[in-house]
Structure formats: C-alpha cells, structure tokens
Amino acid sequence: MKRVLVTGALGQIGSELVPALRRHYGDDVVVASDIRLHRPDAATDEGHFELVDCTRSREIDAVVRRYDVGTVYHLAAVLSAVAEERPSFAWDVNMGGLYRVPEVARQHRLAVFFPSSIGAFGPSTPRDQTPQVTIQRPTTIYGISKVTGELLCDYSHRRFGVDSRGLRFPGLISAGALPGGGTTDYAVEIFHQAIRYRHYTCFLRPDSCLDMMYMPDAVRAMIELMEADPERLLNRNAFNVTAMSFTPAMLADEIRKHVPELRVDYEVDPVRQSIADSWPRSLDDSAACEEWGWKPHYDLESMTRDMIEQLGRRLHSVKQEGSRS
User: Fold this and answer.
1) Could you say which DSSP state residue 38 is in?
2) What b/e string do you get for 156-189 counting C-beta neighbours within 10 Å, with b at 16 or more?
3) Which residues sit opposite 30 in a β-bridge?
4) What is the pLDDT of residues 302-313, one digit of tens each?
5) I need a labelling partner for 183 at 20 to 30 A (CA). Which of 120, 138, 140, 261 fits?
6) Within a domain: residue 247?
7) Does residue 111 form part of some domain?
8) 3-class state of residue 32 by DSSP
9) This prediction's pTM
C-alpha cells in the first residue's frame, strides 16, 4: 500500500487523525508532517515524522518521493479568529499550501483531502439546513480561503484528474487537542474550565446556535470519504457534514448534568461573535449520506459524556504524576 501523508499533523485535527490512520492502516503507512518541530509527547510520535513547509513545493515533493506517498490529507491552515488578526499571514499559509499540494498531486497522481468549513458560507447563505449547493459569500479571510480552496480542488479534478475530496466541517470539539484559534473554540474551552475550575467565561452570546461535530466523527468522516467509491461522488469539494447544533447555553446545561456547580459568564468578543453570526446554525448533509453513507455516531448528550470522561481521566493522571514528582 502506498503511504499516507498528513500535513499540519500537530494541529487540532491532525493530532487525532494521525493516530486513527495508524490504527487503520498501520504505523509504517502514515507519514505525519508539520512546520513545527515534532513534540516528543505528541500523539503523532509512533511513526514517521517530517518537518515540511507546505508553501514550498520542493519540500512536499521530496517527502512524497521519499515515502512513495499515494494520498495527502492537507490540514495545514490558520483558523478563523487568528486569521482575522493576521489576514496576510493566513492567506499565505492557507492558499500557498493549498495551491502547491494539488500541483504535487497532479505530478504524482495522488489523492488529496482538503478540509473546508462552515466558514465558507456567509450572512447571505441560508442559516438553517444550509443546502449542499448554495450561495457562498463569506466575510472573513478564513472563509474566503476555504471557498477558494473548494474551487481550486474542483479545478484540479476537472482539469487534471486529481482525485480531490473535501468536507465542510462544522465546529469541531476535541478531547485530545487544545483550542487552536477558531470561532467555535468555546465548545472545547468550556469543558476544560468546567472540570478544573467549575467556571467559564464565554466569548459568544448564550443564544449563538452553531453546527458542531465531535472529533471522532470528523476523523471517521475523513477516512470514509477517502475510501468511498469515486464513481458515486458528485459533490467532491466539499460535502456538508453535521452531527449536532447547539448554543453555549445548551452546552452548559448538558455539562451541568455531570458538573452541577458549573457557572458560565458571557463577555462577548465582537470579532468572533460577528463571525459566528455569519455561519450556519444547521447543515443539510443529505448529499454525504446518499453518496458515501455518512452517519454521525455522537450527539450532544453522548459527546458531552465522553468529553467529561476523557478529560477527567487526563486531569486525574496529571495530578497523580504531580504527586509522584
């Protein structure tokens, strides 16, 4: 089997995708890469790791040749809130890498996965049950880069036959990675703060409803899409996928079933609130369901329970390590 390359492997998605791919295909098959030095405690430390700047075609090409890569999961990107603070940097990273990865894929006949986002939509998009094909006029540099990425991957497929595929992810909630500068980060931060301090100050309004997904579902969706029969795929770049929709207040209420003492305050960040207000409240994922059998495993209740259990075990382990030192 040809190897699988993951760019941005130390990020929020990559830190969970790489171990999942290694369990699925074997440690030797998966090559993790990032522009940052490999952390010795990272979840990606069980196999191949390469330092790669995705804005440099030669570095991507060298790794593809060295490891005989057949598929690239291109995850390297700057997320929404950080991108608004540094738009020029975000454009260089998000678009510089995305242009070069499909070009290397064209030369070596690689399959490419590209993660799009609900950020690819804007305030003129229908916010409830957002259709698979609809108007996309995002108002952030992050969203603009995602729409451009979808179009570029479609172009690479039509013009050069690159097997490019993508998903429009909702907000992603992870027990394995800390927030990385996204607008939906509150849905991760609140768990850490609830378990540690029983208090959280949220940067979105309590009634801000957004589409969300638990990371195990997101990882499974990526792998299932890349293994799907290409003849069935009509909406390659990119499929709407969803699992649940909720507000900060709804999430806090669900967490209180496990942490009754949780207190939540609200100090709204105008930038992140304006971004959230431009994104869908819910997505229509019927195309993904019909074309490659997508179905989420986690809802708000089961995701919350699993997050509390995982983070609780991790905190207990840290305390035990501290008491022994």
Assistant:
1) P
2) bbeeeebbbbbbbbbbbbbbebebbbbbbbbbbb
3) 4
4) 999 999 999 988
5) 261
6) no
7) yes
8) strand
9) 0.90
Contact by Cβ (8 Å): 117, 169:
yes
Q: Catalytic: which of 67, 73, 99, 142?
A: 142
Query: Which structural domain range is residue 229 located in?
Result: 3-170+214-240
* DSSP three-state, residue 30: strand
User: Omega before 77 cis (within 30°)?
Assistant: no
Number of domains present in the structure of the chain: 1
Residue 278, sorted as left (phi over 0), alpha (psi -120 to 50) or beta, turns out to be alpha
Is 142 considered catalytic here?
A: yes
- By the 10 Å C-beta count (0-12 exposed, 13-18 middle, 19+ buried), 260 is classed as exposed
pLDDT in tens, 114-154: 999 999 999 999 999 999 999 999 999 999 999 999 999 99
Is residue 295 in some structural domain? no
Q: What is the mean pLDDT of residues 168-178?
A: 89
